[in-house]
Amino acid sequence: MTEKLYQLDSGQIEFTARVVDRRTIAGQPAVALDRTCFYPTSGGQPHDTGFLNQVPVVDVVLDETDGEIWHILAKDLDADLVEGKVDWGRRLDHMQQHTGQHILSEAFVRELQAQTVSFHISEEFSTIDVDRSPLTSAQVRAVEDVANQIVFENRPVITRFVSREELARIPLRKPPTVEGPIRVVEVQGYDWSACGGTHCRATGEIGLIRIVGIERRGNESRISFLCGRRALDDYRRKDEVLTQLAGYLTTGYTALPDVVRKLDADLRACQHELQKAGESLAALEAEAMLAKAEEIGAFRVIIRSFHDRDFLAVKQLASRLLQRAGVVVLLGWKGPEKGQLLLGRSADVDIDMVALLRTVCKTVGGGGGGRADLAQGGGMLSERVDEALALARAAIAGHPIRSP
Questions:
Q1: Does domain 293-396 have CATH number 3.10.310.40?
Q2: Residue 401, exposed/middle/buried by CB under 10 A (0-12, 13-18, 19+)?
Q3: Burial classification of residue 316, based on how many CB atoms lie within 10 Å of its CB (0-12 exposed, 13-18 middle, 19 or more buried)
Q4: Edge to edge, what strands does the sheet with 191-194 contain?
């Protein structure tokens, strides 16, 4: 079994070791060492990266059957004796997130009697799931305050292996799930957890614990949080956004909520007025189109193609026109490449618009469907929309349909 140097000193990132086995994992070369500082993915904490003799270590996995740690490499490693170096930036980040999680989980227990049921560190943020839901913002803020107080006190973080007898005297937050000697991580006088992960030497190294999300998941809540450098980067991003917005709106960032609320109210009022004006304009446009409609038999037929409005506006216009009796609308929309058709009739007109659409599409391409009183289709080239409307008019007039 590999000697796990990271469990003795999480700050150690350089070491020498001997290759004891080799294999291929997922198509990539991998080696097992007699000792390593590389942490394998386990317990919600991702693996370390770094180098063995300048060969990149891209993944580290733990074989649960025999406890062997496998270092997956970017290319073959020929040497039997290696010098290893762990990426310190990634290691420190994971130490900050993991130690921060221990403190945050204990704070949830003490403040809300909520136990942590799972933990995960991703590339962007960390999460814990707690067995309580829903949680209010005030409750979570109180937990965050307590957790950061422990950080500010810079309490020592102590890791040690204990026997089963000694373990019975330690107030663990949750019982261990492994056999043999247990590694306990203690945030001095505050939290005791059985854990094999890498951790800070003192809580001050965490820097800051910031809760950034609460998601209800049935009877549980998922808490997203950031520690250390991640929290600093998050603050900088948000500060930059606030500063830009405040500058754009020529106000202080503390006044932004009031300014945005006023802008939203003004926008809603303008949208309401615009909608009223649009409805009035649409009514006038509909009347003008009805006045110029072509009479074919007992029907007034309106034929028009559009390119200067969206298709939704075309449908709204058709709906307004079809409120009148004895009306048939043959409308087209010319998009950048493809066109669409909207064929409709008033309730008192006996024409099957779906059958008409299908007949037209056999010639110009595309397809569609709908109801007998309103059919919609598309897929033909935009330059064939006017041809399609002419074919539809010819069919209504009782003429044979053929391509011009």
A1: yes
A2: middle
A3: middle
A4: 157-162, 182-187, 191-194
Give the sheet arrangement for strand 338-345, strand by strand.
Answer: 294-296, 299-306, 327-334, 338-345, 374-381, 367-370
Common-topology check for domains 3-86 and 293-396: no
Structure tokens at 294: 């072509």
The domain locations on the chain are: 3-86, 91-236, 293-396
Q: What is the pLDDT along the chain (404 residues), one digit of tens a residue?
A: 799 999 999 999 999 999 999 999 999 999 999 999 999 999 899 999 999 999 999 999 999 888 899 999 999 999 999 999 999 999 999 999 999 999 999 999 999 999 999 999 999 999 999 999 999 999 999 999 999 999 999 999 999 999 888 988 999 998 887 777 899 999 999 999 999 999 999 999 999 999 999 999 999 999 999 999 999 999 999 999 999 999 999 999 999 999 999 999 999 999 999 988 988 888 898 899 999 999 998 899 999 999 888 888 888 889 899 999 999 999 999 988 899 999 999 999 989 999 999 999 999 999 999 999 999 998 899 999 999 999 999 998 885 544 33
DSSP 3-state of 19:
strand
Domain range 91-236, CATH class: alpha beta
CATH 2.40.30.130 correct for 3-86: yes
Nearest to 339 by CA among 331, 348, 347: 331
Which residues have a Cβ under 8 Å from the Cβ of 279 and sit 6 or more positions away? none
